Amino acid sequence: MIFDPVFFSLLTWFLIGWGTTFLVVFWLSLMIWVIRDIRRRTRNTFVRFISFLMVTLFFLPGLLIYLILRPAHTLEEEYSQSLQEESLLQSIENVSLCPGCSRRVQDDWIACPGCHNPLKKSCQKCGKALELPWKICPFCGSLATEPTGS
């Protein structure tokens, strides 16, 4: 088998060209990815520009630095987290307390089991629980009577 130096020269140039093309396309795709990723993580234009510049100038080491320093969560994840926290706080705040002893009571209780304070009154006609200030039952329309306290 005869080794042709021209063939190896062409093969070398072909591989160098292909490798260079691959690296350039890879570098450009990393820049695009960083732009898209940092947009989802912050609204700060200075941070966006520095992230893009770091990957553009330093290529793979810049990408590694970016991955270490980028915000951990996306804006969407932070928004979702804040909604969950808000929902949890609202559910905690909506807990009913007895006006007499400040214990937690359920919304459908008529009296507090701790201090026997009336929380609601029941309609004499339909038996549904009514708020204390109500003068008429919204369920059946009959006049409400005063609660019986112990």
Brief account:
This protein has three helices and four strands. With 150 residues, the chain is mainly alpha-helical.
Any idea what the radius of gyration is? Answer: 35 Å
Biggest beta sheet attributes: 2 strands, antiparallel
Number of strands: 4
Structural class: mainly alpha
Number of domains: 2
Order of helices and strands: HHHEEEE
Helix proportion range: 40-55%
Number of helices: 3
Termini separation (Å)? 111 Å
Low-confidence stretches: none
Average residue pLDDT: 89
Write down the overall geometry. Answer: rod-shaped
Architecture overview:
This protein is mostly helical. The protein has 2 domains: 5-76, no CATH class; 95-150, no CATH class. The protein is built from 3 helices and 4 strands, in the order αααββββ. The chain has helices spanning 5-41, 45-69, 75-93, and strands at residues 96-97, 104-105, 120-122, 129-131. Strand 1 (96-97) and strand 2 form a beta hairpin. The longest helix is centred in the N-terminal third of the chain and has 37 residues, at 5-41. The model has no long low-confidence stretch (mean pLDDT 89).
Strand and helix layout:
Layout: H1 5-41, H2 45-69, H3 75-93, E1 96-97, E2 104-105, E3 120-122, E4 129-131
Antiparallel strand pairs: 1-2, 3-4
